[in-house]
């Protein structure tokens, strides 16, 4: 039995805002929300993005309820396929989106000034020993990105950091292809993979171009 | 080096919507976005919610860029503290939010018609052998919730399912308290935990009341 | 040394309400309030509104502690830039918000039935000689708005009064642009200016539309 | 004629929240708001507080539309009575509240971590030459508080800063008594003055006790 004596009521300002949403957005769309509840969701795309508060997936893409199945973790990473019976939250989300919901697009959305990528960079440069510890969840999670540090171009830290942010996207796409159900969906044409990177400051969006093999502004 | 020959350009409809966002929302708020990029995020709260496309965390709470650090996984689950050096994406997100960003609130937001919770329920009722397989990422992820099935009240399936959805929230809050940095932040008053459940169909929001030990509509 | 023998204890009803706030809102949000105290405020917007008791800036915009830097004076007026070494409370507030806090938005919020604007109107129509006196602080303060009276459209008093309320907002925005630090922040895109008018009776909100050159309901 | 080509539409998130307020708080109270519009405001108290985003006057005192006439400026200062025909925004607000609205209470509400008071302190200690410049609106505004620096107790900076925050409240009350209309209203018993100080971090409220001649927690 759970012991949740530590849970507290929501802050009032959020309750007030919720009531505002309920009386407007919900009220105006309740027919659609009821259908979504009765018939289940049928999202067209899955988006994997960072938890960062500055990334607003639905705003950027003008998406409303029912459109995107969204998984958000630190640094928008996908680990390689590893069916070892342990708990893999990201893999579970991908599996559910591709095999149960059969989404048509899977978008990995990275962003500038990513604290997780920066942590990985500092760790790989030997400047963040605390992230090397076994007990560091962030450090161990960023191990997924670690192999990408070796191939970074020469340059100053900001340049290399940005390059690593973009490699986080590409590495995730590569890792996605190691999942048999992803690879087969891509191969039979029912799923397409996409990599995009958002500059928080300028609002720019760059998308991976497989022909030119670089990220290009849209 | 990565091999991302499978990545494709974004669907045109998303690029069009992005350009619309850039010319309007971004343009009206660029001073704020630039500051968020320059000075870093300082979100007041972390929200852990489901990936489900019908859950719109920011809409429900009228939140804009910079307000919420959002982790989304299947069924808004938090596993227990397990610093074994393996990859724990949810634990990494919680660690980053609490120790680096020092969020003041951590809200676990569940919802009705949760496919992940339903999968767990079917599995525990013996009706989903495929989820029992070692290779099922969803099944293994939902093992986090499994212990809650035992204590469900008698009743029909919908009643028990809804109860399990709410137990997923409470179990996550309990598991959060097994993380030393969460427990100490709660104990010293710098962090409060909150559990809430949203009914997709009716738009209702229920919040866990620690005094009455039940979810009550706000 | 000050002589404050005239100060009195707070009315009991306010003390009771304060204790209620302390035991509820404060208690639920103390982690956030402590962070705001330790790390300083970082408000996204400054709002300049009237002192009128019927204008509730934070309620209308669902804002909580830390979101808005709020200056309130009679009739939400901003005087022109005048760095003469005298005391200019409004100019000081604008200077602090723009140069020290670097707010991203500056919203001038006017309202219906504004007593200050009405006083200015009566004064300009020759019906309030007491406001013309040198010793009238309200009269001299409303001199800021006086130049706008000349260009009012023909019509009955209520129509012209409402027009003058809206001109108070626009004149303040124009005056804001005479402050070099405001103009340069607007020009480099780090600050945007906004004009809005709230109808106390109907609750309507109208926002200045620079394209149509009029206030339009949102 | 005004030229407001620089004004921009409001950010979307504020418009959404406004619509939420309109559909809930406004709708539930429209009878009262309509009366407030038709019959005019009749606030019981005037509050003079700081613009600081962390000070929520209405929350702390559980006040709703129509209760408080609120003037907010940097550091909640009131200048001395100076009827020189120039623009004095604070004096105009006090004059309107006391002579036109006839408020029964006038509360000067200070707070901890006040940036304006800190600026004054640094200036008086010779550590902020930029605030001494004629063109510094904040510096000239804080000149109102300057005379209080001389009598500060010995001690470290934080202790002296806190003392100066409280003297800002007392000096304002003293200055209020230099206004003939305030002094006569106090003397005939129709107005009482109050000084209070809020600790942002702990939520504590201290009120000036004229008997003990110190600020005491309520």
From TrEMBL, chains A, B, C, D:
The keyword Nucleotide-binding does not apply. Gene3D superfamilies: Carbonic anhydrase. It comes from Wenxinia saemankumensis. Reversible hydration of carbon dioxide. PANTHER family: CARBONIC ANHYDRASE. Belongs to the beta-class carbonic anhydrase family. One of its GO terms (biological process) is carbon utilization. It catalyses: hydrogencarbonate + H(+) = CO2 + H2O. InterPro entries: Beta_CA_cladeB, Carbonic_anhydrase, Carbonic_anhydrase_CS, Carbonic_anhydrase_sf. Keywords: Lyase, Metal-binding, Zinc. Its cofactor is Zn(2+). It holds the Pfam family Pro_CA. One of its GO terms (molecular function) is zinc ion binding. This is Carbonic anhydrase. Binds 1 zinc ion per subunit. Its EC number is 4.2.1.1. Zn(2+) binds at residues 50, 52, 111, 114.
